Amino acid sequence: MGQGQQERVPTSLAGAVAEEIGASLAPVDAALERLYPGDPGTRQPVHTVYVPGDRFTADTVREWGDQALAALDEHAPDAALFGSVLGMDGALAEDVYARVRAKLEREPVEDLRVDFEDGYGHRPDAEEDETAARAARLVAEAAAHGTPATAAPWTGIRMKCMEAAVRDRGIRTLDIFLTGLMRAGGLPDGLVLTLPKVTYAEQVTAMARLLDAFEKTWGLAPGRIGFEIQIETSQSIVAADGTATVARMIQAADGRATGLHYGTFDYSACLGVSAAHQSSDHPAADHAKAVMQVAAAGTGVRLSDGSTNVLPVGPTEQVHDAWRLHHGLVRRALARAYYQGWDMHPGHLPTRYAAVFAFYREGFATAAARLRRYAERSGGDVMDEPATAKALAGYLLRGLDCGALDEAEVARESGLDRDGLEGFASPRRGGLTVSAQ
């Protein structure tokens, strides 16, 4: 054999066999690419705040932050007390408490939904018309001139549903709101729309058609406007024929579905759960959210848990009880990979951020060390696979996005800058970068 020539390893199958298999699986390859594109790799808010349309003002975000800070001042004026209420040790409590206060000053609300459904109710048409138009003006002004301290990074509306009794009203409100945004300069980057009480996939198809018509009217790029699907009925989980309706809904959105949001109380009531036991940790809720999670996995559609209706108001002991409940529910959801949830009262913000920050602070050192060992192929007491490295990087990125972690400490402990983390979290992007040490 001549120099530089390499001996061929013997095989048994003709090349035509692989070509035939490739051709036969080409439709499957295309379907996988289309149906399961993976997570978009962008920041996801840790919560959604719902404010009735008639109560939404230009000062709503700042007022929520100020009210949350006032609740801390009154009921937990120092880290030691706050930590004792939530079961955190001294060092963690000090860190989390400082970060919570800073977050409430800097960016009190991550995602705001102006509600025209249950939180708003039925009003005269002229009144809802004006409220929707005012919401559009305020959202446009916030997008143009607001800061994270005064305007949420994500903002939009929850319209009325596609059921016959309120369908026309919901469509009109959405039209007024979107038209107002366009007339004010265009759709903001952080626009989010929520379609509630979805029961049939056909209702999702109707919403997609509605948005397609609006885009064509204004000359917008096809698919520019997405929306969340709210899961509030048993039929949205399991259809009459036994199929998982929520999976069909994602496909019916034709690429426009951005999230699945669980509606705790409507769903619980639909199943006959008594009011005293309606909670996001009820077994019925766990089943629904597990089906949602499997249906959404790999599609790029994100998940959100529901809310608690126990408000942290009244005397300090009562507020502490409500805080413990809310904190526990948020921590439980995070452990189950539900990284977003609803908050219905300013008093929920301290425990939302405390639970989120503690979740990432507690696991930070271990996650960073495991990812460093994987990136450097240096071994260790845990043998991680690419999928685990992806999860570790995603965990660190989520911690960075919400303010639980700082870029300098993540780079120091993991050996990766943000581009490097994103390379592991979204392998299709490529571009792994190890930071200089």
Automatic annotation (TrEMBL):
SUPFAM superfamilies assigned to the protein according to its UniProt record, in alphabetical order: Phosphoenolpyruvate/pyruvate domain
Names of the cofactor(s): Mg(2+)
GO biological process, one term: oxaloacetate metabolic process
Pfam annotation, one family: DUF6986
Record keywords: Magnesium, Metal-binding
Keyword Magnesium among UniProt keywords: yes
Gene Ontology molecular function: catalytic activity; magnesium ion binding
The protein's name in its UniProt record: Aldolase
Species lineage: Bacteria, Bacillati, Actinomycetota, Actinomycetes, Catenulisporales
